[in-house]
UniProtKB/TrEMBL annotation:
rRNA processing keyword on record: no
All residue ranges annotated as the Fucosyltransferase C-terminal domain in the record: 152-266
GO MF annotations in UniProt: alpha-(1->3)-fucosyltransferase activity
Protein name according to UniProt: Fucosyltransferase C-terminal domain-containing protein
The species this protein was found in: Stanieria cyanosphaera (strain ATCC 29371 / PCC 7437)
Taxonomic superkingdom: Bacteria
Signal peptide from the UniProt entry: none
Gene Ontology CC terms, in alphabetical order: membrane
Family designation: Belongs to the glycosyltransferase 10 family.
Gene3D superfamilies the UniProt entry points to: Glycosyl transferase family 10, C-terminal domain (3.40.50.11660)
Keywords linked to the UniProt accession: Glycosyltransferase, Transferase
InterPro entries tied to this protein: Glyco_tran_10_C (IPR055270), Glyco_trans_10 (IPR001503), GT10-like_C_sf (IPR038577)
Length: 317
């Protein structure tokens, strides 16, 4: 059977490569079961809109300005590929959390997607089809290495990869917790971009494996923890790197992963601080969870994988 080619459009930077997601399959050229993932395909069989921000019509101009402006009410240009793929085979997956500051924007994208997409989903109750986000990851090791490789040598206790973004209240809460950990001398290594000068970070990393695999524990702290659908690559990256995640997020992870494969950070305050100190004071928790981590990794790679989700979707046609 011929493989169905899946093209992709995204508003995320750097997701316009031909080989986007190729690392999430053991096969060459993005092949997984009945599909081939080729983000840049000009005439795909299916089209994935992945966190795609639809162009919005411009607000009406004053009547007097219309006298001097032609086509002032024209809509922004829609990519030609939209016209080449039937709506039933066009998928819209939104992956940003329903933060108060962007809920209206997310709803606008859902509404616009109805013109072009037969399947529209996101990790919130505003979506036409509320559902978990299929897993992607930013550990750039090969699929085969992740699926069959041995536990990497562990040398250090705990790491955290995050950013200094502060545009929402949730981001600011995370930064305040980072400051609390620093002020109380919690032992962990920090990596990430645009981090505040008051914390000496180890900088950015191209492959998250390099900042996770040598550590026993990893702080996996979501930007949003208030519903039962949102869970992001922060958890997948940590587990695929054989860390025991100390996870702060909603209850979606409890439904998707085996019990004991991650730890629950209770809160981003003194209670959470003390919990991290207690857990990272020994390696006992990691050794107790080792088998569960192995089980969770296979679930991420084979069941939660976005390519597996796409293959199941294509199978319906």
């Amino acid at each position: 059977m011929d493989k169905k080619v899946i093209g992709m459009l995204s508003s995320y930077k750097n997701l316009d490569q031909s080989d986007w997601l190729w690392k999430q399959t053991p096969n060459h050229f993005g092949v997984w079961k009945n599909i081939q993932m080729l983000a840049t395909a000009s005439k795909p069989d299916f089209l994935l809109l992945y966190q795609y921000n639809f162009p919005q019509p411009q607000p009406p101009l004053p009547w007097w300005q219309n006298l001097f402006t032609q086509n002032s009410q024209s809509l922004p240009t829609i990519p030609a590929v939209f016209k080449q793929v039937p709506s039933a085979k066009t998928i819209y997956l939104l992956r940003e959390p329903p933060l108060e500051e962007i809920v209206e924007h997310n709803q606008s994208n859902y509404q616009a997607a109805k013109q072009y997409c037969g399947y529209i989903s996101g990790p919130d109750q505003f979506a036409p089809i509320p559902d978990y986000m299929p897993a992607i990851w930013y550990v750039n090791n090969s699929f085969q290495e992740l699926a069959t490789g041995n536990v990497p040598e562990k040398q250090k206790i705990c790491s955290w990869i995050t950013s200094g973004i502060s545009r929402t209240e949730n981001h600011r809460q995370r930064l305040a917790f980072l400051k609390l950990l620093q002020e109380n001398g919690v032992d962990f290594d920090l990596y990430g971009r645009n981090l505040p000068a008051w914390f000496h970070s180890l900088g950015t990393v191209q492959n998250k494996w390099n900042a996770m695999a040598p550590y026993y524990y990893n702080l996996a702290i979501e930007n949003y923890a208030d519903n039962d659908l949102y869970v992001s690559e922060k958890l997948w990256d940590s587990l695929l790197s054989w860390c025991l995640p100390i996870y702060y997020g909603g209850s979606a992870a409890d439904k998707l992963l085996p019990p004991g494969s991650f730890l629950r950070l209770p809160s981003l305050d003194e209670k959470g601080l003390n919990y991290i100190k207690e857990i990272t004071s020994t390696l006992d928790a990691w050794y107790e969870a080792k088998d569960k981590i192995a089980e969770a990794r296979q679930i991420i790679l084979h069941k939660l994988n976005l390519l597996e989700w796409l293959a199941d979707f294509v199978e319906q046609f």
